[in-house]
Amino acid sequence: MADLPPLVMTCGDPAGIGPETAVAARRCLGAALPFVWIGDPAHLPPGTHWQAVDQASEAGALSASVLPVLPHPFPAPATPGTPDPANAAAVVAVIERAVGLVQGGAASGVVTCPINKAALIGGADFGFPGHTEYLAHLAGVDRVVMMLACEQLRVVPVTIHMALRDVPEALTPGLLEQTLRITHAALISDFGVAQPRIAVAGLNPHAGEDGAMGDEETRIITPVLDHLRAEGLDLRGPLPADTMFHPAARARYDAAVCMYHDQALIPIKTVDFSGGVNVTLGLPFVRTSPDHGTAYDIAGQGVADPTSLIAALGMAQDMAVRRARP
């Protein structure tokens, strides 16, 4: 672990809580978990102890009370709670720069602070639904998977950022199979689960109840599960989603694959609202993020909770260590 380069953290939207939670995370972790922040130092909270570095590797040599910064000038100041379209292109450029560092071996993983997709679309013609899809583009991979993880639960939505009415059409056998394969592989390589157990939710109430409440379970989900079970994957389901997330049920699997966004995210945000981590599976590099948004309503007030960002840093480090093992 000592030989790994530091993590690199993107600033996210500087009008959100990213800068202040980055400072709070450094204050809490000190030098125990080295990371370098990329952004405009002028956007950090007043009084922040920071120091510019030329290389990410210099972060480990700084005092634990100092935030290491790879400066990235932005065209406009940041007003907490009010995103500025003038800064949108720089937000995107910081993400690209961070990915370049980890791809070049200068960083062991990327931890991204929250962005606002609407602000990026309006200010930079951002052509992606979110971080996950943009990172896949930068990595040159066709398919990645979004996992939300905390100590008690890991969940994966098969479909992500789309209207609920579009989910049944988007839920194809190929998409479900890819999601399950990527999740299974990542549980082994990134989370150290030797024999992953994956619970799979149905799409409809009561998992369709033998076709009485929808046929996606019998027509799409079950055939995919049977095919992958024949290869040796330990898959349970399709299960009624309303009985999958109580403590006894959670003890029977290592991750839950759900059919749409809220089916996955409501349980984990109920179980651990502050400590959830967004992990992108299927990338050739480690990427995590706090499981919250820009929180414009509290930005700049010094009350933002850094728990999720700290958890994202810890998870990224653990993943990087596992990937580095021979």
UniProtKB/TrEMBL annotation:
It catalyses: 4-(phosphooxy)-L-threonine + NAD(+) = 3-amino-2-oxopropyl phosphate + CO2 + NADH. Pathway: Cofactor biosynthesis; pyridoxine 5'-phosphate biosynthesis; pyridoxine 5'-phosphate from D-erythrose 4-phosphate: step 4/5. Binds 1 divalent metal cation per subunit. Can use ions such as Zn(2+), Mg(2+) or Co(2+). One of its GO terms (cellular component) is cytoplasm. Its cofactor is Zn(2+); Mg(2+); Co(2+). Homodimer. Catalyzes the NAD(P)-dependent oxidation of 4-(phosphooxy)-L-threonine (HTP) into 2-amino-3-oxo-4-(phosphooxy)butyric acid which spontaneously decarboxylates to form 3-amino-2-oxopropyl phosphate (AHAP). The active site is located at the dimer interface. Belongs to the PdxA family. This is 4-hydroxythreonine-4-phosphate dehydrogenase. It comes from Rhabdonatronobacter sediminivivens. The gene is pdxA.
